[in-house]
Structure formats: structure tokens, C-alpha cells
């Protein structure tokens, strides 16, 4: 009656990974991401210079790509995701990236994952967007973003409703 005894939905809080400008995943300049082929998520266009990239969630690092441009993670609730730094940056073979975490490491929004040399990446003709995509969402699990425009690192920007 009146929803008093309804269970509150569990949520995974999402954070900005760096200082920059929020971008919906549909705005990303790559059809695999913008078409949500890998899953739903969001992106941040980072500021110029060397950018520190932080974890978008509380969880654990699952893997670090040998080319340092991508890191996979799993949240405490079992949601799997991918942080992809730049578009087509795999071709840089690790140049422009410095990773600060190890596989299996516990992380939260204040954990520095990597440094990204945005100026170098742009000079190489690559897109600078940092994309967060959640790869194992069920049909009833939704990414809900409550922010637009400029963001700071570790800023709460939304959640995944479980």
C-alpha cells in the first residue's frame, strides 16, 4: 500500500574518470561504442595535456590490455565493464599511456588507473574520448546518467539500476 514496503532498487554509482566534458555513448565517434554493440555506458572528452584517469566504479581490475589503452573491471555487484582510452589508440602500442594499477587490484573512484597524454594522442590523429562501457548488463539493468557538461574527476554522474 502506497509503496511503503517496496524493496529499494540496488544501484551501482558511476563516476567521472577525469576532468573534461561528459558525452553520451551515442555521441562517440565509433559505431561499435555509439551503437551499444558492446553495451551501454558513457564517455568523457578529457581536457588537454596529461590527464589522470580514475576508476568509474567501486570494484576490481580484471585485466589491462598490453597496449595500455584499455582496462576491464568488475563492480562489487558483478557488473563487468571496460574503460577504453581514446579511439583507435591500440595502434599506439602503449605510447601515451602509463598504467598505475595491477590486475586483481581493488579500486574506487579515487583510485588513479592511468595517465593519458591527450596532446600526444591528438597529435597522432586519434580521438581522445575516454569511453566507459558496461558489457554484461541484463535487459532490466539500465545506465542512468544525471549529469551533462563539464565534469571533475571522481564526480558522481549517475548509476546503474540493478
Automatic annotation (TrEMBL):
InterPro entries: Dup_hybrid_motif, PTS_EIIA_1_perm, PTS_EIIA_component
Domain of life: Bacteria
Gene3D superfamilies named in the record: Glucose Permease (Domain IIA)
Sequence ranges assigned to domain PTS EIIA type-1 in this UniProt record: 30-136
Location in or out of the cell: Cytoplasm
Classification via PROSITE patterns: PTS_EIIA_TYPE_1
GO cellular component, as recorded: cytoplasm
UniProt-listed GO biological process terms: phosphoenolpyruvate-dependent sugar phosphotransferase system
Chief localization: cytoplasm
Keyword Kinase set for record: yes
Matches recorded under PANTHER family: PTS SYSTEM GLUCOSE-SPECIFIC EIIA COMPONENT
The entry's keywords: Kinase, Phosphotransferase system, Sugar transport, Transferase, Transport
GO terms for MF: kinase activity
Protein name: PTS system glucose-specific EIIA component
Pfam families per the UniProt record, alphabetical: PTS_EIIA_1
Amino acid at each position: 500500500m502506497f509503496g511503503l514496503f517496496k524493496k529499494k532498487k540496488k544501484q551501482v554509482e558511476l563516476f567521472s574518470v577525469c576532468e573534461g566534458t561528459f558525452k553520451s555513448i551515442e555521441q562517440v565517434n565509433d559505431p561499435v561504442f555509439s551503437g551499444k554493440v558492446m553495451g551501454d555506458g558513457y564517455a568523457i572528452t578529457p581536457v588537454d595535456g596529461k590527464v589522470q584517469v580514475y576508476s568509474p566504479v567501486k570494484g576490481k581490475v580484471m585485466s589491462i590490455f598490453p597496449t595500455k589503452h584499455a582496462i576491464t573491471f568488475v563492480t562489487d555487484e558483478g557488473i563487468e565493464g571496460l574503460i577504453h582510452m581514446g579511439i583507435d589508440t591500440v595502434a599506439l602500442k602503449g605510447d601515451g599511456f602509463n598504467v598505475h594499477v595491477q590486475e586483481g587490484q581493488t579500486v574506487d573512484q579515487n583510485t588513479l588507473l592511468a595517465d593519458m597524454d591527450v596532446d600526444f594522442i591528438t597529435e597522432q590523429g586519434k580521438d581522445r574520448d575516454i569511453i566507459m562501457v558496461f558489457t554484461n548488463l541484463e535487459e532490466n539493468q539500465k545506465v542512468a546518467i544525471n549529469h551533462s557538461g563539464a565534469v571533475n574527476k571522481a564526480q558522481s554522474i549517475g548509476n546503474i539500476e540493478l
